[in-house]
User: Fold these one by one.
Assistant:
Number 1:
Amino acid sequence: MAFPTPVVAFVRPFSVTADRFGGFAESGTAIARVASARERILHGVRAPARSLALAIVDCPMDSSPRACEGRLGIYIMVASAHLRSGVRPSIHRRGRRRVGGSSRAISNSDFRFKRLIQIMKILRAKHLGMCFGVRDAIALALERRADAPLTSFGELVHNETVLDSLRSRGVQIEENAASISTSTVMVTAHGASEKKMSELRDRKFTVIEATCPLVHFAHRAVREFVQAGFHPVIVGKRDHVEVRGLTEDLAEFDVVLSEADVQALQERPRFGIAAQTTQPIARVWHLVHLIRNRFPNSEIRFTDTVCQPTKQRQSAAVELAAQCDVVIVVGGANSNNTRELVATCREFCPRVCHVQSALDLQMEWLSQAKTVGITAGTSTPDNIIDAVEHHLQQLAAMLDECGAPANFFNGVMAKT
């Protein structure tokens, strides 16, 4: 099999010398990059005996492993280096290899090539991560904490990393009003009922609202249903804090999340339907249609209260999952919108994994994957998403002394 003149770069995990040679080294591996597009040269990083080599074949002009926003979409060839122990390869160019002060033409005896493969491509969803409501709630909490001790009444957001950060900066978090020790209390981004707000004020707390404006919109929609004589039906999870806030002030209401819940509804002359803001809009519409079909003689009014950030992340997740072999969904274990993203992605991609941070990633998830997608829930900070993507890049490029993990490159590694 004939190849263009190979340009070879040696990599070593945890190398700190990569920067000297124009590459980059970040907490797990060093990946050499194109240093001169004109000559298509890669600088070498010293590698121990029996290490593996990456050979860039006919590398496009101006391309590098960080091209296309770090997706590592260049082509590589896996080779087994036949170099003497301790020999440091320097620049490889134009078919010659420099060894011990002399150079000679590279021949097939120097490297045993295997078939061409493509490094795993990493894609981000067009819309992902923290929404404006969560950002505003966190900013308000930190601003008020700077003025006085502060307690969040319940989890400000459903993301443990964010909550740990808030605790480290002095924000207390309590689920029970009787346990609150500060004079100032913050209602979370998920909102609360007037009943719960009055309970806090009766205890002489100064109450600060961090409720998302789009949750306020859902509260207004439900109040308008009741005032107009409609029986309120909420599409959502009955035990979710947002749904409790929407329903605790109501004398009568129903919560539905499945076809069975719709079948259990009693007939009413008028139904007013709203939704938990983080429900998938497709599910909401499906249940609305079921209710209309089940009660054709009832007047049914629907107000779409699913928030725009949720809709954007759901639609972007569908588009992403359809392109990927594996999708990584980043978000808190207790985050409803993150779990809904997981469920949506599983309809279009066979392998979907939910992680809270980069530490949860497992190499075996990526076995034989050519394209891996990343999406994230509305309470996931940018730095966590960036860390997950960076770690995926490391896993994609990681080569140990004996080769890649089992099945990771589908058997294309050269045998040493």
Number 2:
Amino acid sequence: MKRLICVTLMMMLAAAMLIPMTVSAADPVLIVNAETMTLTAPYQMGSNGAASNGRVIEFPGDGTTSTGTATIKLDDLANGKYDIILYYFDENDGQGTFKIEVGGKTVLEFKAKDDLPSGSADAATYTNTVKQGMWMESVDIKKGDELKLSYTQNGDQERGRVDKIEFYKADPATTARPTTTAPPTTTRATTTRATTTTGATTTTSGGDGATTTNAAATTAASSNDDGGGLSTGVIIGIVIGAVVVIGAVVFFVMKGKKKS
């Protein structure tokens, strides 16, 4: 019995040491809010309370069958490989097609056909490519490459609403896949980082009806202040460590009583 208790305590101590390392995931190194991208009609900016900044890009609700695009130069990324997550809305009133290209190469093309339980762009239909089982991993990006998002409406009311695109430094040895599910913010097991936005947004309308929006992307920069918070992994480790200590105390107290 004593041996079993000792083995159990050792396993709990090992778990307490390992959990903070295995559950941690990287923060995004770049967040591109869709409304800061350069748009071509029929894409336009719109307001939406379920989006991270209360803004999205979307098609007008006229059931068109045309294709709109949103582009941005990735000047804030260094040369390297990155994992990419697209945050968008998938309503149950249509099935349009998204395509994402980086540096002229298609990295993902899919139909928004999950038909989440609402015909509106709200918390019920807010999702991301990781949640839907679509991975854009280890994408080779060179500084200044163009990211191009295309959406083709299928003559229905699926309006191709997009909130943001996140980039993570690909490092399979140390970085776990992000598995964000809750709109519109992301909780990660890591130190909180501050986001810095540079540049202003300007909108112009051309004679062809196209709306062009220019602004700098939002970059996720490391902050010296972690906001006083602890990562999920550290908290779990502390809890298990406390359980180990309490278990050890109880064990030795009971052992002493038995001897007396």
Number 3:
Amino acid sequence: MRLLSFATLFLLFGALVVACAPLGEHGGGGDADDDDSAQTDDDDATDEDDAAPGLIPCSGSTLETLTEVEPNDRQGAPQAIGPMVSSLCIQGNTVCGDDTAYGDQDWFAVSVSVPGPVSFTLEWDRTADMDFALLGPDIEPVLELYTESTTPPESGSFTLSEVGDYSFFVGCWTGDASAWALEVTAEL
């Protein structure tokens, strides 16, 4: 009987984890970057589309550069940036999804102590549908850049009207694994 109870508890916990995964505008559950997908015999490690991307340079003049560090694939466990600075470039790479869910979402958290305008520009280096979303202190989306374009950049701006902790993610809905750079400029 204990085995059945443990199995039931395990299944319920798994369902809870899936139900709590962050949803994107595309309707996909959050973290699909679990490295347990099967490879087919026709996968070729030398194929340019399968090669792991490197980092792409930041195009603007920035005061601070940050490299994405795994694990940061969940909204509940973002990479902490600390206080918002006036100019920041975050570089990383991502695995793309299959047009039903994100392959990878890279989450970040930043603390805002002075409200003001902020702009975001997302660049990437391969054919991919990259997305970005900014969530306010109440965890509601305040800026979403979801276009179905596979060519960069995606950009937008928003006035941070509240002091508090904001979170945002960069994700790839579909396409080739891509290196990306997110430039953030704030008027503090």
